[in-house]
C-alpha cells in the first residue's frame, strides 16, 4: 500500500511539474501550543514531505473552537478535533469525517499527599474541571461514579476554568482534585502530583476494552475523496514523525523547545504521555467501542454534548484504505 501511494504521489508531482500546474494545497489548522505543531516540526526536520505531491499550508488557530469555525467556513481543509462533534455535525447534514490522531485523554489528579484515594473520596470536595460542564472526561467520570452508586454531579463542588488556572488552583490548594487535559496533567505529574485515574482508565473501568481516540484529523469527506492520495501520504508522514519523536532521542531534542518548558523532567513526562496516546490499530472493534462511549455520553449530557441523535452517525470515521 505504501509503495503504491508513494508511486502515485511521485507521478502526481511529475505530472504537475510537466504541465506547469500548481500542486494541490492542504490547509491545516494548527494550535501553536498543540502536539500537532511538534509533529509538523519533525516532518520538516526529516524532510518527510519534500517529495510530496501537494503543498502543506498551516493556519494558526487561537483555540479548538476557532478551528471548528474555520473548517465550517472553508478557511482550512483539516483540523484536529473530536469525533463526538463530527457525529453531531453529520446529524445536521454536515459532510465531516474523522481519522484518529491520539488516544491521550487527560486525567484526574490530586496532590501526592492527598487523602483522596478513590472516587468515593471526592464526595464533598472541590473538583476542578477543564473543558466546562460538557467536557467528555467529566461525563465519563460521572458514568463511572454512577456504576459505583455515586452521583458526582451532586456530591462534589465543581469549579470550571481554563486548564492553566486550574493547575494554579490545585497547586495553591484552592481545589482538592483536578480533571484536566493530558498535557496539563503531565506538567503536574512532573511536579509530583498523583494521577488517580487517566482518561483511558475511566474508559476501561466502564467496561470498554478497546482503545478509542480522543482526538483526530477532521475534514470533509467529499474533499478527502478528491484528494485521497495526498491525504494518505500526509497521514503516513504524520505517523512516521510521531514514531520518530517516541523512538529517537535526537528527533525529540530537535522539537523539545516547542513544549514551552526548559525543565527536563517535565519534557520527559510530556513525551511519555504523548507517546502513550499513539494509536497502534483502529478498526471495527474500535468503532464499536466508540459507539458504546457515545451512548453513555448521550444519556448523561441531556443531548447537549452529542446532539439529539441516539446513535453515532454513519460515516463519522474515515478509512484511509
UniProtKB/TrEMBL annotation:
Superkingdom as given in the UniProt entry: Bacteria
Signal peptide: 1-20
A matching Pfam family: NMT1
Residue stretches making up the SsuA/THI5-like domain: 50-241
Keywords assigned by UniProt, alphabetized: Signal
InterPro entries xrefs: SsuA/THI5
PANTHER family cross-referenced by the UniProt entry: ABC TRANSPORTER SUBSTRATE-BINDING PROTEIN, ALIPHATIC SULFONATES-BINDING PROTEIN-RELATED
Name this polypeptide is given: ABC transporter substrate-binding protein
Species classification: Bacteria, Pseudomonadati, Pseudomonadota, Gammaproteobacteria, Methylococcales
Amino acid at each position: 500500500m505504501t509503495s503504491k501511494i508513494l508511486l502515485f504521489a511521485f507521478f502526481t508531482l511529475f505530472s504537475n511539474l510537466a504541465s506547469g500546474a500548481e500542486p494541490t494545497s492542504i490547509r491545516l489548522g494548527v494550535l501553536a501550543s498543540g502536539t500537532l505543531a511538534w509533529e509538523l516540526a519533525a516532518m520538516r526536520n526529516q524532510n518527510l514531505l519534500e517529495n510530496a505531491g501537494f503543498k502543506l499550508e498551516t493556519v494558526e488557530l487561537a483555540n479548538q473552537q476557532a478551528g471548528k469555525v474555520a473548517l465550517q467556513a472553508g478557511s482550512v481543509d483539516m483540523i484536529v478535533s473530536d469525533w463526538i462533534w463530527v457525529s453531531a455535525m453529520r446529524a445536521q447534514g454536515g459532510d465531516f469525517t474523522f481519522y484518529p490522531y491520539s488516544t491521550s485523554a487527560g486525567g484526574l489528579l490530586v496532590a501526592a499527599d492527598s487523602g483522596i484515594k478513590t472516587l468515593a473520596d471526592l464526595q464533598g470536595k472541590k473538583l476542578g474541571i477543564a473543558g466546562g460542564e460538557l467536557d467528555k472526561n467529566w461525563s465519563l467520570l460521572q458514568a463511572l461514579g454512577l456504576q459505583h452508586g455515586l452521583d458526582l454531579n451532586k456530591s462534589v463542588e465543581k469549579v470550571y476554568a481554563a486548564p492553566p488556572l486550574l493547575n494554579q488552583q490545585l497547586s495553591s490548594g484552592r481545589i482538592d482534585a483536578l480533571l484536566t487535559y493530558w498535557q496539563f496533567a503531565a506538567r503536574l505529574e512532573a511536579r509530583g502530583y498523583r494521577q488517580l485515574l487517566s482518561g483511558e482508565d475511566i474508559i476501561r473501568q466502564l467496561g470498554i476494552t478497546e482503545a478509542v481516540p480522543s482526538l483526530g484529523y477532521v475534514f470533509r469527506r467529499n474533499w478527502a475523496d478528491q484528494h485521497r492520495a495526498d491525504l494518505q501520504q500526509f497521514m503516513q508522514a504524520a505517523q512516521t514523525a510521531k514514531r520518530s519523536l517516541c523512538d529517537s532521542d535526537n528527533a525529540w531534542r530537535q522539537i523539545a523547545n516547542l513544549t514551552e518548558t526548559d525543565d527536563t523532567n517535565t519534557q520527559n513526562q510530556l513525551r511519555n504521555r504523548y507517546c502513550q496516546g499513539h494509536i497502534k490499530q483502529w478498526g471495527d472493534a474500535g468503532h464499536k467501542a466508540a459507539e458504546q462511549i457515545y451512548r453513555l455520553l448521550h444519556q448523561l449530557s441531556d443531548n447537549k454534548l452529542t446532539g439529539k441523535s441516539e446513535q453515532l452517525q454513519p460515516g463519522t470515521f474515515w478509512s484511509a484504505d
